[in-house]
Design a protein that fits this description.
single chain; about 240 residues; alpha/beta; Stationary-phase Survival Protein Sure Homolog, Chain: A; nine-stranded mixed beta sheet; two-stranded antiparallel ribbon; 5 helices; 11 strands
């Protein structure tokens, strides 16, 4: 990536998560990057933001790094308004676990990038699919992320869109995985709950989710890097 770029880095796994450290490694030291991430783990928080009733605490960690007592979308909002000034890209991740298919609606990682696009800043959400019982090799994830981020930031991106990237689990195969541009699979996760009286606990298997051949879930589960262009608004009705 060109050294004249300025990036806002964030995530939803927390400021000290290994994934955002891997993202910083992927970006490299030549590029100016400001890390603004939630203090705590907020996976699955979607596009929640803090309203006027919540005072957001900002902890300056030094060196252009800030821990925020807020959501991933808060991090981007506060970053663009106050902490970073203009940036060229918002990059979120590397999430510990996939953000595939309908996950884009639940994911705080994806929401952070979406918030940037709302304010006219292009973005890339990067997630690392975690196979059942398989630890993540974060150094390898950083290597893969560096390649795909470098590729995506040097090509034009349509307005009001962002990239959603999912890396296959890091034991999938040797060498750099194939990058596949594909659509986001709309298949829902299976609904499976353990019911005990008045309580319910979700027990569906992420790895057994439905997948359409050639769409992002199938691509990533097959050991390839899925890259999907996501539109800010999937459709807009026109009325006379």
């Amino acid at each position: 990536m060109s050294s004249d770029r300025k990036l806002l880095l964030t995530n939803d796994d927390g400021f000290d998560a290994p994934g955002i450290a891997a993202l910083r490694q992927a970006i490299g030291d030549r590029v100016m990057a400001v890390r603004i991430a939630p203090v705590s783990h907020l996976s699955g928080c979607s596009h929640r933001v803090s309203g006027p009733e919540h005072v957001i605490e900002v902890v300056d960690r030094g060196g252009g790094e800030f821990a925020i007592d807020g959501t991933p979308a808060d991090c981007v909002r506060l970053g663009l308004h106050h902490l970073t000034g203009p940036v060229d890209w918002v990059i979120s991740g590397i999430n510990e676990g996939g953000n595939l298919g309908t996950d884009v609606h639940y994911s705080g990682t994806v929401a952070a990038v979406r918030e940037g696009v709302i304010h006219g800043v292009p973005g890339i959400a990067v997630s690392q699919y975690k196979g059942a019982g398989i630890p993540i090799d974060w150094s390898l994830a950083a290597e893969w992320a560096a390649e795909v981020i470098g590729m995506l930031t040097t090509q034009p991106i349509p307005p009001e869109t962002f990239w959603n990237v999912n890396l296959p689990h890091t034991s999938a195969r040797p060498g750099y995985p194939e990058v596949v541009y594909c659509q986001v699979d709309p298949s829902p996760l299976l609904l499976d709950y353990r019911i005990d009286g008045a309580s319910a606990q979700y027990r569906g298997s992420y790895h057994a989710r439905p997948r359409r051949p050639g769409w992002d879930v199938d691509v990533c589960f097959s050991g390839k890097i899925s890259v999907s262009l996501v539109h800010l608004m999937s459709s807009v009705e026109q009325f006379d």
